[in-house]
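Encode chain A's predicted structure.
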Amino acid sequence: MPEFDTYVDVDVDEFWTECSKREKEELIDILVEDGWVVRTSPKGTTPEQNLPSLPDILWMEMINKISVSRLQLTREEEELIEKIYKRL
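Encoded structure for chain A:
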């Protein structure tokens, strides 16, 4: 049986625009699970529905930086973060 190779060049913006809301949520879930993005709004909402305030944006930046730099924290800093976590 003959084999055929096909190549389709699809622009990422065009692909995203053509996806349904369900398909977009599925793609976001995959990106979150693979560690490419951090979900910043509740599942099922659009960014316009859940615009963060400036303090929220700054807070997320701080938390993300701490998370990425976790191995650079001292034991005391880790214990302080754990203490805050357990309090909540």
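The mean pLDDT is 88.
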